[in-house]
Specification:
Elements (H helix, E strand, L loop, with lengths): L6 E3 L2 E3 L9 E6 L7 E3 L4 E2 L1 H18 L2 E8 L2 H12 L6 E5 L2 H14 L5 E6 L5 H9 L4 E5 L8 H19 L5 E3 L7 H15 L4 E3 L9 H4 L3 H17 L4 E6 L3 H21 L10 H4 L3 H4 L1
Parallel strand pairs: 3-6, 3-12, 6-7, 7-8, 8-9, 9-10, 10-11, 11-12
Antiparallel strand pairs: 1-2, 4-5
Organism: Aminobacter ciceronei
Protein name: Tetrahydromethanopterin S-methyltransferase subunit H
InterPro entries: Dihydropteroate_synth-like_sf, MeTrfase_MtrH/MtxH
Length: 302
């Protein structure tokens, strides 16, 4: 088994022995069709509502004692820069720089460098379509974390993901000087969350890298569940979150930021169990403000 390689992202630490730190909860803001966005390409949005969502996540991270981050999404370089700047000025939590187009991701890196917040940013992500301009940008502007999408459609097994890391991503990471990536095990549909969980375990054991997935990706396709109503969707989403964390998931993408309270409560509950065992059995000192203490004071905090 490989030695664990924890990664510092701003004030958060992900990876390492299970339970020694909480998982990193990630929720998307400024995503496609987000109600707060007026025009995704001009970057116009409702600042009051956006600030309210950011404040909510900031408060939940403290209240529940879990690590949380913002997945900032953009479709246009200038708009993406506006979204990053607005979010970075209102939180000290980590930021994922996430966009579908290479030029937009590159603009995001440049903005983070200009703002001096690269030390709490994650580039999302390197994949099979990564372009040279992105690698060049990553050499110039090094974020705290670089995510890789280790999802081999030809071999979606845990072994296929590990082979993809070794044969495809490791040379790319060496080229830009990244020793420890964050590994995203792709999720295509609801049943494949189980395969992603096995992949997370395999990556952590073989490489020691922090690993996780966006289990939320499968829920829009789960039409039978959606017909039961939002409460039942959220129950299943919380189940996926806790199962993924118990499998060793270090980063946990719960989907749209509006679900942040549900996600914080579900993860906080799981971290009580994991943290107590890590402390009492493994001898790991838990970080200040850990969920183990915060979850028993929720009524007092409210």
């Amino acid at each position: 088994m490989s030695q664990f390689k924890p990664l510092q992202i701003g004030d958060c630490t992900i990876g390492g022995p299970l339970g020694s730190h909480t998982g990193l909860l990630v929720g998307s803001i400024f995503y496609d069709n987000h109600s707060i966005v007026t025009d995704a390409f001009s970057g116009s949005f409702n600042e009051e509502k956006a600030a309210g969502l950011i404040d909510r996540v900031n408060a939940l991270a403290v209240q529940y004692g879990v690590q949380m981050a913002f997945d900032v999404i953009g479709s246009d370089p200038d708009a993406f820069s506006k979204f990053i700047r607005f979010t970075a000025e209102r939180t000290s939590l980590p930021l994922l720089l996430n966009a579908t187009e290479a030029e937009v991701r590159v603009a995001g890196l440049a903005t983070a460098a200009e703002l001096g917040v690269l030390g709490r940013c994650i580039f999302a992500s390197l994949n099979e379509d990564t372009e040279d301009q992105e690698l060049e940008a990553l050499r110039r502007h090094r974020p705290a974390g670089v995510m890789i999408l280790a999802n081999d459609v030809g071999d979606p097994t845990p072994e296929g993901s590990c082979n993809m890391i070794e044969k495809y991503f490791r040379p790319m990471l060496d080229d830009i000087g990244v020793e420890t990536p964050i590994v995203d095990l792709g999720v295509m549909d609801a049943p494949s969350v189980g395969i992603a969980m096995r992949g997370i375990q395999a990556v952590r054991e073989r490489f020691g890298y922090p690993a996780g997935c966006a289990f939320s990706n499968c829920f829009p396709q789960w039409t039978g569940l959606s017909s039961l109503g939002r409460e039942w969707v959220n129950l299943s989403l919380a189940t996926a979150l806790v199962c993924t964390r118990m499998a060793g998931g270090d980063f946990l993408h719960y989907g749209i930021i509006e679900k942040c309270r549900m996600a914080a409560h579900a993860l906080g509950s799981a971290e009580v169990f994991l943290g107590f065992a890590a402390q009492e059995i493994d001898g790991h000192p838990l970080p200040d403000g850990h969920a183990l203490l915060k979850m028993f004071k929720l009524a007092e905090a409210a």
